[in-house]
Specification:
By secondary structure, this protein is α/β, with parallel strands linked by helices. The protein is built from 13 helices and nine strands.
């Protein structure tokens, strides 16, 4: 099975419960950013620019766990910044796991090797390591020599200690797709459990010409879709068909709500119009109908998984073909 059995069970149970209770808008993944501090300054990163004035701020452990309790999502993505710089990171992981949640822990891998000595594998825990290309490309995008080798060694050690590891690759305008195929081959040989790929999104705060327009995204992801037939992708086939232009999907901006040092970020992980003090207020006060392709100019080029993978959940039940495709994908 592509995803862990417990994650499949908990996610399915949660979705069915919401459907039976006729809950129209419910989150699937909580994006928790306890700090925006980072040990890198990557060209494509919006966070270090958007939150430059509050970079030193951190959420308290109490606020982090309160946020997990507020948001019913069964999955918590701990991200940042670099979350391994958060001083209470190990207590946070323990607290989230004690609540029965599943953790996707996002890291650039630079501190991973040392962190592993203070951690033990858990069936609800997955490392998500950022990998944007082979050595020269990865180091250039992260703007520091040696980052590729350090991340690779961290992944190897994590797998040797029994951790589940997936990787996340951003596809930019100048990304060489042959190189990405070679990267996925290398990661697969290392025993990485899953691969995620998504198009780079042009944050308002980022001025670099790295990012793809919609037609460019579709062309590159036609190649990614073919790769998904050979590699163990965690990006769903319906999402990949959407990104390559074969399927139409509407964004579900509340599917992956973000909580950071400023509050509950609205309307989504990528766009910030305001921050709310509570999850309930964010869900009730955000005018969701104002956002999406054709509604807000900032959404025009967006095809990011944080907005469209949650849509896949609602679309699957509408077609037996989609149900069958997802069953085969998950079981292989």
């Amino acid at each position: 099975m592509r995803f862990p059995l417990r994650l499949n069970y908990d996610l399915t149970k949660y979705i069915i419960s919401n459907k039976l209770n006729k809950v129209e808008k419910y989150p699937l993944v909580l994006m928790l950013e306890p700090t925006h501090l980072c040990n890198l300054a990557c060209s494509g990163c919006g966070r270090i620019r958007e939150y430059a004035d509050t970079m030193q701020e951190m959420m308290s452990l109490e606020d982090c766990l309160k946020s997990v309790d507020e948001c019913p999502a069964p999955i918590v993505t701990i991200t940042g910044g670099e979350p391994l710089l958060y001083p209470h990171v190990y207590d946070l992981i323990e607290g989230v796991l004690k609540r029965g949640k599943h953790i996707q822990f996002c890291t650039n891998g630079l501190l991973l090797e040392k962190a592993l000595d203070k951690m033990t594998p858990h069936p609800n825990f997955t490392f998500n390591v950022h990998m944007d290309g082979l050595e020269e490309t990865h180091d250039r995008l992260l703007e520091r020599k040696g980052t590729f080798k350090i991340a690779i060694e961290g992944i190897k050690k994590a797998k040797a200690k029994g951790f589940r590891v997936c990787t996340n690759t951003t596809i930019f305008k100048d990304t060489d797709m042959v190189e990405i195929d070679m990267l996925f081959s290398k990661l697969t040989e290392m025993g990485v459990d899953g691969l995620l790929a998504a198009p780079g999104f042009s944050y308002e705060a980022v001025g670099e010409k790295l990012f793809l327009e919609r037609r460019e995204i579709q062309n590159k992801f036609a190649e990614v879709y073919e790769m998904s037939k050979r590699f163990r992708f965690w990006s769903t086939p319906m999402y990949l068909r959407f990104v390559k232009g074969e399927k139409k999907l509407e964004c579900t901006p509340w599917g992956n709500p973000t909580r950071n040092t400023r509050g509950w970020k609205a309307p989504c992980y990528l766009i910030t119009d305001t921050h709310y003090p509570t999850f309930k207020e964010m869900m009730e006060k955000t005018e969701w109908e104002k956002y999406g392709v054709g509604k807000d100019a900032r959404c025009a080029q967006c095809m990011m998984h944080c907005g469209f993978e949650p849509t896949v959940v609602n679309e699957i039940g509408k077609s037996w073909k989609d149900i069958w495709e997802m069953m085969i994908w998950n079981l292989t």
